[in-house]
Amino acid sequence: MISKDMISAYREALNEMLKRYRDMLAEWRSEFDKWTNRAKEEIRRGSIPPLPPIPKVPPISQLSGVRSNVVASRIRDEDLKVVDMLVEAGVFKTRSEAIAYLVSEGIKACRDIIDEVSSTLEEIRKIRRQAEEQIERLRGKIRLPEVKAEAGGRVCPSCNRDLSNLPEDIQVCPYCGERLSAD
Hints:
By secondary structure, this protein is mainly alpha-helical. The protein is elongated. It contains four helices and no strands. Helices cover 54% and strands 0% of the residues. The two termini are 32 Å apart. It folds into three domains: 4-109, no CATH class; 113-147; 148-183, no CATH class.
């Protein structure tokens, strides 16, 4: 379950981004109004007014690397309306681009929580490895054979654990976190 802090941090990041774009639109309107007034003066003098200045597009943080992973997710109607509004306004070209950006900003906004989870997970993996090593030492002391995955079974290439009892769509080893090949 997602904590209320993460949700509020995500909403805060989204609201901050929307505020930046609203501010930029207000600046564009102001510049356009100034240009309109100058154009009227030029027309009164009988000359052709210059084209309005092209406003700077607000920077959209680029996601690191190329987006190559496809994720299907259900989102609330209100969130989809926000995404569609951003696409309609031309801030993003597609829903996919908008959602990828918002996910990236949400992750940035929750970086401290994510770092805490990551360090906790690393501790869990370390304890798990230590427990497995201790069990193997005990098995060796009582002369039990080393546990190996069955031939032809699914095995993690990193920790050599048997993964044959896991669903086929699991892409990450639950024991060591290694990304599994699609074989």
